[in-house]
């Protein structure tokens, strides 16, 4: 089931964030895995959260032709992406402890917004998201057209 919608959140002094109930209710530990994977995405200033199953599925899908000798670009992307990805567990209060170095690197404030992004959740600065929301919304139709144009015709 895709993650949709948005909810406000707070990162506490111990770098913990409660997973909002609307998203928790869409997550099945039995089907999706017990843990999450947290990936910093500097271009958008977001932390991307993938369920264990989705992370593994995406990793496998990206490995159509695994090799001990990948080309230099693939090898560099692999080491960057996998070295910055951290596994985070959910505690008994439905909180995850975000890696402090990721929060600091992206300069995430205490007040954040948790966004449903289909196959993942994204954590972004609340004030920044809210101030740019109308601009983002106005780009939705154009982005849809651009992506449709990329699809190969059969």
Could you characterize the architecture of this molecule?
The chain is built from 7 helices and 8 strands. It has about 150 residues and is α+β, with helices and mostly antiparallel strands. The protein has a single domain (about 5-125), classed as Chemotaxis protein chec (3-Layer(aba) Sandwich), CATH 3.40.1550. Strands 1-7-8-4-3-5 form a 6-stranded antiparallel beta sheet. It has a two-stranded antiparallel ribbon with strand order 2-6. Strand 3 and strand 4 form a beta hairpin. The longest helix has 13 residues, at about 70-85. The chain is globular. The model has no long low-confidence stretch (mean pLDDT about 90).
* Domain tally: 1
The CATH topology turns out to be Chemotaxis protein chec
Largest sheet: 6 strands, antiparallel
The CATH H-level superfamily is Transcriptional regulator MraZ domain
Helical/strand content category: alpha+beta
Q: Major sheet: order of its strands? A: 1-7-8-4-3-5
Note the beta-strand portion.
25-35%
Helix count, DSSP H or I runs of 4 or more residues: 7
Contiguous low-pLDDT stretches (5 residues minimum) are none
Q: Give the integer mean of the pLDDT values.
A: 91
The beta-strand count equals 8
Form type: globular
Residue share in helices? 40-55%
Distance between the termini: 28 Å
CATH class: Alpha Beta
CATH architecture: 3-Layer(aba) Sandwich
Report the C-alpha radius of gyration, rounded.
17 Å
Element-by-element helix/strand order: EEHHEEHHEEHEEHH
